[in-house]
Amino acid sequence: MALNAETIPMRWPAGPLDIARGEKVKGFTAETAEVLRKWQDPASLALVQGTPINCLVVSWGADAAQQQALKPLVEKGKQAGLEFVGLIEGEANMPAAVAAAKAAGLSAVAMEGDAPANAGIPVIPWNKAAQVRSTSSFPILGVSDGVFPGLPQAASQAGGPTNLPWVDSNGAPLLITRALAPDKTVWIGFAPPAQAKLAAEAYVLAVADPASHGARWVISLDDQLRADLAAKKQPAADTWKKLIDTVSFFEQHKELRGYQPSGLLAVMSSFAGPNFETGEEAVNLLPRLRQPFRVIARSRAASASFAGLQAIFYVDKEAPDAALRKKLMAFVADGGTLFVPSKWPNPEGAPAPAEPYLLYNMRKVGKGRLAVCKEDQPDPYDTVADIQNIMSHRTDILRLYNAPSSNFLYETTAQGKQGVIHLLNYSRRPGGDGPVFFVKEPHKSARLVSPELASPAELQWVPQETGGAELTLPRLSVYGAIEMEK
User: Fold this and answer.
1) Listed residue (366, 360, 355) closest to 314, CA to CA
2) Where are the beta strands (DSSP E) in 123-169?
3) Are 456 and 484 in contact (CB under 8 A)?
4) What CATH fold (topology level) applies to the domain 9-252?
5) How far, rounded to the nearest angstrom, does the alpha carbon of residue 70 sit from its chain's CA centroid?
6) Given the DSSP bridges, would you call strands 9-11 and 360-365 parallel, antiparallel or unpaired?
7) DSSP code, position 321
8) Which architecture, in CATH terms, is 264-395?
9) What is the largest CA-CA distance in the chain?
10) Which string of DSSP letters, residue by residue, matches 5-21?
11) How do 55-60 and 9-11 pair as beta strands?
């Protein structure tokens, strides 16, 4: 089986290379080193037998000792139908490492930067989100700098200007990567916090956060869990089962990976160089404002549909080319609102009456508005909050109540007949009351699916006097998805 969209990867640290790296890290113990030796034993593969995991990502390099140590593991795993990817990190002699991976029969290598010429083996680009490369012909793209999701680990977990607590999520970089490379399957790598012993729900969230954003986590376990699994301790086995059950849940609902983010607002950027930070911050903040949105890569905007959009936030300081500017202004003339930076040259339209409390100066263009930022370096939160205020809450298609530590992502099929609301609780603790969604558009049906439920739960629509309807959900510890049909 070649690596493809159905491949489910797991990080498999083992052998002398991982031990040598671990010895440079504070807190690394002799027990941890011994576990890494046990994980190079082919007998350790029993852990993934009978699970959806079908690919192991191993540390690789031009290191003969590591290659020799992993040889029995790779041979036994391939006999069992497993694929192997060699992760090359900080390798000075990459061509030699790639050649050794081919000779060892690995399915692919993952590495930063561009593939060596005539690699002779598939190469997965493995870069930080800000340097994502979409030019590779291989169907899988890696993001190397994910974060373990949840509430921030700092002692003070202060809320932001939203009065909602900040959360650590991979949603923003994954939505951006999907927009830049919509034809790729995205893998994201992140490890548990060092020296952590995590609850099972932490691993459920670690699977659900990327999966709900259309990507796959390269599953990575904390040192203690690896040690306890090697020792066959029951609490560790229970945690592992819950993790695997969550992976299986998303495989049972893999049709949702074909849905696309939806909303009345689109964030448009090249997401390159300095534009990445600004664009990512907007995409990161909008879920905390409960604002459904789409992401449009500027490189693909010429062929992108603006149908169904009320507004577009053009992030980049440099103006678009003439063709894209013409398309954007046609969107405005037809009734849309375009938010642009202060450096937008020769702004179209006539100035509207000034509103001093707004961050944007409004200009009338046809049936719509061009909104030009007043400041060169506006606060990111003030920017997206002002965009939301100008769009007006009267147009909200979704609202979420009773879930302060949660984000949601709204997606629909291409035809718009089916929709899904992914709800992620980053506190990993159910609240006192169940979450409540307001949904503006009428739907025929709605049901809740979750790895926390034995079977789907049909939800009841409660019509509201002002229009729309509410859906009340049961209390969820980590994740649930509302599947809706019009």
Assistant:
1) 360
2) 123-127, 140-143
3) no
4) TIM Barrel (3.20.20)
5) 31
6) unpaired
7) P
8) 3-Layer(aba) Sandwich (3.40)
9) 74
10) TT--EEE---SHHHHHH
11) parallel
Q: Residue 61: which of 35, 99, 117 has the closest Cα?
A: 99
Q: What are the residues whose beta carbons fall under 8 Å from the beta carbon of 398, sequence distance 6 or more?
A: 290, 292, 408, 410, 421, 437, 438, 439, 440
Give the single-character DSSP code of 165.
Answer: B
> What region, left, alpha or beta, does residue 163 occupy, with left being phi > 0 and alpha being psi -120 to 50 degrees?
left
Fold of 398-485: Immunoglobulin-like (2.60.40)
User: pLDDT tens digits, residue range 179-214?
Assistant: 999 999 999 999 999 777 899 999 999 999 999 999
Per DSSP, what are the bridge partners of residue 295?
Answer: 267
* Structure token digits, residue 325: 């500017």
137: CB partners within 8 A, 6+ apart: none
Q: What angle do CA 266, 269, 274 make, to 5 degrees?
A: 140
Spatial contact of 332 and 338, defined as CB atoms under 8 Å apart: yes
The three-state secondary structure class of 313 is strand
Q: Are 459 and 474 in contact (CB under 8 A)?
A: no
Q: Which helix (H) or strand (E) holds 282?
A: helix 274-285
Q: What is the pLDDT of residues 263-308, one digit of tens each?
A: 999 999 999 999 999 999 999 999 999 999 999 999 999 999 999 9
All residues at 6 or more sequence positions from 252 whose CB lies less than 8 Å from its CB, including other chains: none
Domain boundaries, the chain: 9-252, 264-395, 398-485
Q: What is the spatial distance between Cα 150 and Cα 201, in angstroms, rounded to a whole number? A: 10
- What are the residues facing 126 on neighbouring strands? 142
Q: How confident is the model over 419-435, as a mean pLDDT?
A: 94
Within its chain, how far is the Cα of 358 from the centroid? 32
**CA distance to 7, 359, 374, per residue, from 371 (Å):** 44, 9, 9
Q: Which residues of 78-104 are buried (b: 16+ CB within 10 A; e: fewer)?
A: eeeebbbbbbbeebeebeebbbbbbeb
226/212 Cα distance (integer angstroms): 26
pTM greater than the 0.85 cutoff: yes
pLDDT of residue 161: 54
- Taking the C-alpha atoms of residue 125 and residue 113, their distance in angstroms, rounded to an integer, is 7
Distance CA 77, CA 81 (A): 6
Residue with tokens 């577009």: 312
DSSP for 353-374, please give it: PP-TTSSEEEEEETTEEEEEES
